[in-house]
């Protein structure tokens, strides 16, 4: 395993996903080994099962695996933010820890950011979703409402498979639910969005740990806040330093 500075960081937020740890890490390494120097950062978001112990066992075998731990669960957005802030790669890719996001699509997402001079975000767009009919109905309505108001041109912001420039992400104002508004906020900063169709699959084990209210209708206050941020954006001035 290379010990050089990674060019890519994979961030995986998890809460109580002990049985999904080892299979998902194996799939990530199969997708990325030999292509990039990379690190995997699992953000253990207040798990009360054996998630931490499973991660420690794999860490003893893989020098590029890191674990961050929230003492109490802060939610998915907080976990992603912790991982991005700790990341050493210039490009960060995210995926959910339940196994529904297939790591085989990570190279396409990473390459889209790497090769696009103005691409700030590559967003996975799910096809053949494996959620319940009610969850899919919720997502369709939420995506239509969000797109009508923000006009971000994205049909699916809830997919966990994303890749982005770390510095672009850190420009964003942080709030709970940020990960669902990334396309609109990345466009706000003047960057392009690349889209990659990804095939969803059933959860491998366990039940959803980011619950009903994490998936329900986009919060009206959040949507209004992001709309306000976009409307209030001013052109970023070009800055040069004048030397004596």
Automatic annotation (TrEMBL):
Residues 9-169 form the Glycosyltransferase 2-like domain. GO terms for biological process: lipopolysaccharide biosynthetic process. It comes from the Bacteria. Keywords: Cell membrane, Glycosyltransferase, Lipopolysaccharide biosynthesis, Membrane, Transferase, Transmembrane, Transmembrane helix. The keyword Cell division does not apply. One of its GO terms (cellular component) is plasma membrane. GO terms for molecular function: undecaprenyl-phosphate 4-deoxy-4-formamido-L-arabinose transferase activity. The keyword Protein biosynthesis does not apply. Signal peptide: none annotated. InterPro entries: Glyco_trans_2-like, Glycosyltransferase_2, Nucleotide-diphossugar_trans. Gene3D superfamilies: Spore Coat Polysaccharide Biosynthesis Protein SpsA, Chain A. This is Dolichol-phosphate mannosyltransferase. Transmembrane segments: none annotated. It comes from Bradyrhizobium stylosanthis.
């Amino acid at each position: 395993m290379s010990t050089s500075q990674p060019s890519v960081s994979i961030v995986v937020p998890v809460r109580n996903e002990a049985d999904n740890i080892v299979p998902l890490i194996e799939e990530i390494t199969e997708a990325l080994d030999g292509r990039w120097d990379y690190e995997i950062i699992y953000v253990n978001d207040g798990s009360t099962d054996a998630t931490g112990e499973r991660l420690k066992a794999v860490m003893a075998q893989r020098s590029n695996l890191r674990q961050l731990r929230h003492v109490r669960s802060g939610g998915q957005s907080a976990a992603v933010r912790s991982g991005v802030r700790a990341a050493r790669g210039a490009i960060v890719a995210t995926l959910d820890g339940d196994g529904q996001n297939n790591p085989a699509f990570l190279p396409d997402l990473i390459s889209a950011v790497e090769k696009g001079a103005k691409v700030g975000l590559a967003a996975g767009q799910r096809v053949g979703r494996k959620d319940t009919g009610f969850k899919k109905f919720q997502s369709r309505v939420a995506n239509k409402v969000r797109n009508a108001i923000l006009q971000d041109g994205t049909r699916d912001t809830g997919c966990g498979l994303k890749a982005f420039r770390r510095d672009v992400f850190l420009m964003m104002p942080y709030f709970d639910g940020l990960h669902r508004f990334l396309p609109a906020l990345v466009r706000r900063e003047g960057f392009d969005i690349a889209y990659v169709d990804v095939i969803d699959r059933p959860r491998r084990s366990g039940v959803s740990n980011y619950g009903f209210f994490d998936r329900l209708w986009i919060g009206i206050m959040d949507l209004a806040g992001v709309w306000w941020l976009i409307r209030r954006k001013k052109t970023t001035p070009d800055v040069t330093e004048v030397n004596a």
